[in-house]
Amino acid sequence: MPQSTNLDDLLLAERHVRRGREIVARQRELIADLRTRSFNTAPAEDLLSVFEDSLAIFEEDLAALLARH
Predict the structure, then answer these.
(1) What pTM did the predictor assign?
(2) Domain of 48?
(3) pLDDT, tens digit, 9 for 90 and up, residues 11-59
(4) How many independent structural domains does the chain possess?
């Protein structure tokens, strides 16, 4: 695989992890806000779980790419 593709893959994986972390953090903030206003947080918590699962996959992919370098 060409070097630029490896670098492109690494940069993309880093961007996915960074964005995934932002999304998870924001969803946690939204849940906290919902709780303070006594809203049902179950749907938001379910969505958070999906975001956290996706983030874990992104982090695993990044780790695998870094291990190859």
Answers:
(1) 0.89
(2) 3-68
(3) 999 999 999 999 999 999 999 999 999 999 999 999 999 999 999 999 9
(4) 1
